[in-house]
Amino acid sequence: MPSQPTWRRACLSLALAAAALQSHAAPSPLLDASHPVDWWFAFKFNAYSFPGCGGAAPVNRCQFGGAPQGYTSAGSYSQQYIYASSSQPSLAQGNGCVGDTPADPVGATFGQIYNGALNYVVWNDQFYDDPAIASCSGNACLAPWGHSKGVLAWDAQGNGVVMQVSTPSWPASGSAQFPRTSDGNTLGCVADNDVEVSQHFFSLKLSRADVLALLQGLANASVVTDPGNPQIVRNGGPADIQNAVSQLGQQSASATPQVSKLSSGVTLISKPSALQVPPWQLVSAELGGIGLRAATWWESGKSTAIPSTAKPGKPACWDSRLPTPGPVAIATSGSWQGQAFSLKGGPGKNYNHAKIGVSTSGGASYAIFGDMNQEGALSGDCASSQNGRGGLFFALPNAALAQSIAKLIGGATAASAR
Fold first, then answer.
1. One Pfam annotation, family name (predicted)?
2. Which of 41, 49, 78, 105 is 20 to 30 A from 324, alpha carbon to alpha carbon?
């Protein structure tokens, strides 16, 4: 048996080696601060059906800046959530306040970016002037800017992690070195009450080639960011990635969707703003004309609410170069553990701002996470609403997850147009 000094030196060497490995580990989606996975999905409930936080939640700590807002009184917010991951693909109840602890998927994954030294791009069409985007009029960026929100981070080798979010005004800084100056940067701690309605979050591990494909997709979708502002962009790593980052923050003239198969098997679909077609019909078409069921911000009675379509077929608002889409059903309610909740859009605390879907036909079972609402037009004003904006969709082939989400959003369905 080695002497105590030798034993101590050996332990020290192992600890230093472990720290070195950890410091050079590729960024990954995290379920908590020490549990990397290939992907995870989280769904945050609305304040009417699932108020407050889950379990024995601590007082909101606002770990990325800000202070608890007045809307965090009982019933006016929700940070209760369910989640699934590559290590547990069926949805399960989460604990605490999503996004506000190192022990939940959103908080842990964002924390490695915000408190680390990774390169990053943050994009959001609703920064609400912190940071200000010079090329946008007002505090939000409207069409033809992309309706898209998220953060991408990568290391010196180009390996990365992306987190798609549906939350306005969060995130709005990628680093603790460059915090927001007029608002917080933590869910539940920003002036906009984006924890009142349902939201979704999706994170995926990326290879260097995936990072480049995603950056090209972001440019194609005209996402809102600013490569010259260190609050939302830190550019570095491989030269081709740096060049792709430098092209962001501009409005693309493309009318061609970008479809990329990532190393994980996920299909990335980028809709450009100039491709003026209904968003979820585009997703169906690019996935082989499969049937879909989608839950988005869908306002019943509003002229731009696209109805369900019961049969395959090209709508009048279509591009002749595109394949034929399958039927797209619009989910208007769902349930979790016997508690029903609304999946419609609208003002108030009983609504849904997540953009999620599942396949209902075809060979593969897809869970789909998007930027875009099913609002616009099948015919008539083809530039209406989301038809005239860009955004991304991640289609993940996983039967267990797709089945679990299908059950979550398996309530009522909007009436069909045909």
1. DNase_II
2. 41
Give the torsion through C-alpha atoms of 322, 327, 328, 330, to 10 deg: 160
Distances (CA, A) of 189 to 130, 183, 293: 14, 8, 33
| Residue 154 β-bridge partners | 119, 160
CA distance linking residue 11 with residue 54, whole number of Å: 39
Which residue is it, tokens 């036909």? 361
Burial (CB count <10 Å: 0-12, 13-18, 19+), residue 160: buried
The pLDDT, as a whole number, for residue 59 is: 59
Q: Please state at what angle helix 208-220 crosses helix 239-246, rounded to 10 degrees.
A: 10
Q: Which of 286, 282, 279 is nearest to 259 (CA)?
A: 286
Nearest to 399 by CA among 361, 353, 351, 364: 364
- Cα 402 to Cα 52, 309, 344, 367: the distances in Å are 27, 20, 20, 5
DSSP 386: G
CA 363 to chain CA centroid, nearest Å = 25
CA 177 to chain centre: 24
Q: Is the pLDDT of residue 74 over 90?
A: no
Length reported for the chain: 418
Residue closest to 242 by CA, chosen among 234, 231, 253, 252: 234
What residues have CB less than 8 Å from 372, skipping those under 6 apart?
A: 147, 148, 271, 279, 280, 296, 355, 386, 389, 391, 393
Which residue blocks in 150-207 are alpha helix, DSSP H? none
Instruction: Give the residue among 208, 229, 228, 210 at the shortest CA–CA distance from 218.
Output: 210
Q: Residue 57's pLDDT is what?
A: 54
Which stretches does DSSP call E strand in 296-390? 328-330, 333-336, 339-342, 356-359, 366-370
**pLDDT at residue 12 tops 50:** no
Two structure tokens written together for 417: 């147009």
Strand pairing class (88-93; 81-85): antiparallel
Helical (H) or strand (E) element with 209? helix 208-220
Residue 124 β-bridge partners: 149
Question: Taking 90 as the threshold, does the pLDDT of residue 213 lie above it?
Answer: yes
Tokens of 231: 């609050």
Tell me the β-bridge partners of 201.
42, 165
pTM for the predicted model, two decimal places: 0.94
| DSSP reduced 3-state for 416 | strand
